[in-house]
Amino acid sequence: LRSSLPVARKLISGSESKGMAKLYDLDDKEEPEAGELIFAGGTSWTLSGRSGKTKKWDGVEERNLYNFHRLKPLVDVPVHTIITGSIANHTFIVTEDGRLFGWGRNGDGQLGLGDTVARYNPVHITKLPDSDSVLGGACGNRHSLLYTKSGDLYAAGSNEFGQLGTGQSGSTNLNWSKLSSVNAIRQAAAGRDFSVISNKAGTCYSFGYPKHGVLGHGTEGKFLSTGNKWDYSIETRPKEIELLKGVVVAAISCG
């Protein structure tokens, strides 16, 4: 799939003071109950989804878990939130007491641990610049987004096409970068080299690689480059989706 799927509803004028429109508040959702994590599927992170043993292979042979298993570092640990993606080979979880763990492929630093070494067991991630608890996030194929209870957004991993939203491209962020251009973030989604986020007021932004129109800005940014080759004008910072102005986005998803 190459698509962004924001679920939206129009603003409805309410009886708020000064004629302000009543906004959909994502904080009104009930907190999910915590439980123990169980896991199934592929576990050779540098082989998964690849045709064979490439130069990035770390020597760990293919091993698939055909039944659900408990993960030793998380046995009897109440897990509150799971953060992953359909094209990702890495995962984060948030425990009931607010700790952040991550594991999986890390060839582009998408775990935010300061290196590119895959992790085969969940590791406690303490490298976020502040101690604010992570509320949610998203995993793309080579990058990650995390947002905190205070609404701050952090990004790590491949930034080849500006998908981290830092204002730069063509780089790799091995550590978490805080995005200063947005705040009050309450939803995040990540696709293949692009990202979509929304804030507490339901305003939706997208950034990264625009091919096929996945960013929703009315164009795929295609232009004729040097040597008569087609290229794409990437968005390196979160850009509000103009078509959704006046609409409250309640949920987002990326293919």
Structural overview:
With about 260 residues, this protein is mainly β. It contains no helices and 20 strands. The strands form 7 sheets. It has a 4-stranded antiparallel sheet, with no helix packed on it. A 4-stranded antiparallel sheet has the order 10-11-12-13, with no helix packed on it. Strands 14-15-16-19 form a 4-stranded antiparallel sheet, with no helix packed on it. Strand 14 (about 185-190) and strand 15 form a beta hairpin. It starts with 6 loop residues before the first strand and ends with a strand. Mean pLDDT is about 90; it is low at about 5-25.
Structural class, judged by helices and strands? mainly beta
**Could you give the order of the helices and strands?**
EEEEEEEEEEEEEEEEEEEE
| Cross-sheet strand order for the largest sheet | 6-7-8-9
Main sheet summary: 4 strands, antiparallel
Distance between the termini: 5 Å
- Point out poorly predicted stretches: 6-24
Shape: globular
Indicate the proportion of strand residues. Answer: 35-45%
User: Compute the gyration radius: what is it?
Assistant: 19 Å
Portion in helices: under 10%
Average pLDDT figure? 88
How many helices? The count is: 0
